[in-house]
Design a protein that fits this description.
Blueprint (H helix, E strand, L loop, with lengths): L1 E3 L12 E3 L6 E5 L4 H21 L3 E6 L2 E7 L5 H6 L9 H11 L2 H4 L2 E5 L5 H8 L3 E6 L6 H6 L7 E5 L8 E6 L2 E6 L13 E3 L4 H15 L5 E6 L2 E7 L4 H17 L3 H4 L9 H13 L4 H10 L9 H8 L5 E5 L7 H7 L3 E6 L6 H11 L2 E4 L8
Parallel strand pairs: 6-7, 7-8, 14-15, 15-16
Antiparallel strand pairs: 1-2, 3-8, 4-5, 4-6, 9-10, 11-16, 12-13, 12-14
Helix pairs in contact: 1-7, 3-5, 8-13, 13-14
């Protein structure tokens, strides 16, 4: 069966479609998806289905350009994260909580995301989704009223995909690049807690084991090279698609710092004018943390506030970042040099999972012992392209 798409990777690429057997595993319930929408949806669904199954918790992913901007499971939100995500007193179901966490992991990158949910969409999740800038959602079903709420979003153009949770793809997959067909056995090697048995140094808490699993499943569906930081059942920084692993580590660490600073009173206590919209408030907080506003942006930021504020003080910033701890780091390939550990330690990392197998494993282990970081060798590389 052939289902036409809005267009390919770019609007000028026509004749776009997805093809499957007589009964496609995914059904377009609303809107007109593009090629990238479908790639995000199919990658995102695999991620949340696997993660939700391993942890027996609702899982959500916020995808952009075939990599997740954020991933989370339905762990209750503390007060400072409720404020940072601007959910107020809204009642959240576990599924809604998972998506609030996933989107709040990197709100700048989640703008205009494609959402993947491991469970049928309930009204709490649909209502929250209705109020954020997003392109579409994929889920295994919709509770009464949820589909109608989502179908009305974006003037009726919001993409709603329903996927068969029992569908299992064939073991061999192929793709065509430049007229050449490439074939491989699909990566159906599922992540389990047993992957954390190869402890090299230190000990793992139950929370660390959960967070390392979140990271492993996340990177299985993230464009390589990739590294992610995880805390409290959610990613807090993902560095994807970099040619150098230490660049992945630095990028993800910088995102983790922004996430953590977003929970600080210095940022949460900014008072915006009542006319400033929710998404703009979130964006301004991120820009304020990053601190590299242009002159035009500085003027617009000042206009959005009830009262002027000074730039974040470096001493206060560094003191708050130093309070970030018990962070888990996962690498999709082996860590080749200790510089990755040196940078990870600056962002509160206390647990690492990586395949192992580098010629410098001894140096990496020594660095972990120096910083008091527990490390696991999984023996499994998770490259994804």
């Amino acid at each position: 069966m052939r289902v036409e798409l809005k267009y390919g990777c770019n609007p000028h690429q026509g004749n776009a479609a997805f093809e499957s057997g007589e009964t496609p595993p995914v059904r377009v319930r609303n809107g007109a998806p593009s090629m990238i929408n479908m790639l995000d949806a199919l990658n995102g669904w695999q991620l949340v289905a696997e993660l939700g199954g391993v942890l027996d918790l609702p899982a959500a992913a916020s995808f952009k350009h075939v990599s997740p901007a954020g991933v989370a499971v339905g762990v209750p939100l503390p007060k400072n994260l409720r404020r940072a995500c601007e959910v107020g007193d809204r009642k959240l179901t576990p599924l809604a909580t998972a998506y609030v966490r996933a989107r709040g992991a990197d709100p700048k990158c989640s703008f205009g995301d494609f959402v993947a949910l491991s469970e049928p969409v309930d009204m709490a999740t649909a209502t929250y989704l209705r109020g954020v800038v997003s392109d579409g959602v994929v889920a295994p079903g919709f509770e009464p009223g949820a589909f109608e709420t989502l179908a009305a979003k974006k003037g009726g153009s919001f993409v709603v995909l329903e996927i068969d949770p029992d569908y299992r793809p064939p073991p061999i997959e192929s793709r065509e690049v430049f007229g050449v067909t490439l074939v491989q056995h699909r990566n159906d090697r599922r992540v389990t807690f047993d992957d954390l048995d190869g402890i090299v140094c230190g000990e793992l808490s139950d929370a660390a084991r959960r967070d390392l699993v979140v990271g492993l499943v996340t990177l299985k569906y993230t464009q390589s090279n990739s590294v992610c930081y995880v805390a409290g059942g959610q990613t807090i920084g993902i560095g994807a698609g970099q040619q150098s692993r230490v660049d992945c580590t630095k990028l993800a660490g910088a995102k983790a710092d922004v996430w953590h600073l977003g929970r600080s009173p210095m940022v949460l206590d900014l008072v915006f004018r009542r006319s400033v919209r929710r998404q703009d408030r979130i964006n301004w907080r991120v820009r304020y943390i990053e601190g590299d506003l242009t002159a035009t942006e500085e003027a617009a930021f000042a206009e959005s506030l009830e009262q002027p504020v000074a730039a974040l003080d470096d001493e206060a910033r560094n003191a708050w970042i130093a309070g970030l701890t018990d962070v888990a780091l996962v690498s999709d390939g082996f860590i080749p040099f200790r510089d990755n550990v040196d940078h990870a330690a600056k962002h509160g990392v206390r647990y690492i999972a990586q395949p192992g197998g580098s010629a410098r494993d001894g140096e990496v282990e020594a660095a972990c012992r120096e910083y008091g970081i527990a490390m696991v060798h999984t023996g499994v590389r998770l490259f994804h392209h």
